Amino acid sequence: MAGKEHNLVMLGAPGAGKGTQAKMLSEELGIPHISTGDILRMAVAEGTELGQQAKGYMDRGELVPDELVIAIARERLAEPDCEDGFLLDGFPRTVPQAEALEEVLDELDREPLKVINLDVSEEELVRRLAGRRVCSECGEIYHIDYSDVEDGGVCPKPECNGEIEQRSDDRPEAIRERLRVYADQTEPLIDYYDERGLLAQISGEGPPEEIAERVLPAVRG
């Protein structure tokens, strides 16, 4: 294996900037950025046996059970592009998933995880999420504080005429519920990984480039 193996998990509440930092880290380290949604969509698109099982739950609007998500994750992490490492974003979400992921890494004979938690105040999370807008066509994400987009307007991306809209789960009442669910289900992961000496706490406040300058040394250290 060339170089150091980077097996990473990105934690943080909704709006903490996990996706942005994960994309930057993935490019910097040359490892795949893998989200739970990506894993499931790929398995479904490829028509694997596990993907077909997951599709049934997804088509019914139900959560895909832990054991199935974990089996699909194991399949994905065994792919050749993960040989030098991977970055998981949105998985694990619960302590049982984290325990199962450890077993998967043992089975695959991989190096231990390094876990980055982006720490952002609730006030800042609500501000970020409530101001977020998305293009209905290309999926590009904008923020009303940093761009000239407006609800019902046209996407400024060249050759895209999609409509700018606010996702239903980015409305203030939905944001509070998402943060409550995160606190109940996912925050215990912070203690879980901290107790195992795998956690790096990083301030997720400030411009993305500044946050990245804090994240990279923690990953490489």
Which strands sit side by side, in order, in the main sheet? 2-3-1-4-8
**Helix percent band:** 40-55%
Structural Rg: 18 Å
Average pLDDT reading: 90
Shape, per Cα inertia axes: globular
Give the topology string: H per helix, E per strand: EHEHHHEHEHEEEHHEH
Unreliable residue runs: none
Largest sheet: 5 strands, parallel
User: Helical segment tally?
Assistant: 9
Q: Return the CATH class of the domain at 6-121 and 186-220.
A: Alpha Beta
Might you state the CATH topology name of the domain at 6-121 and 186-220?
A: Rossmann fold
Strand content: 15-25%
Structural class: alpha/beta
Measure the end-to-end span.
19 Å
Number of strands: 8
What is the CATH architecture term of the domain at 6-121 and 186-220? Answer: 3-Layer(aba) Sandwich
What's the CATH H-level homologous superfamily of the domain at 6-121 and 186-220? P-loop containing nucleotide triphosphate hydrolases
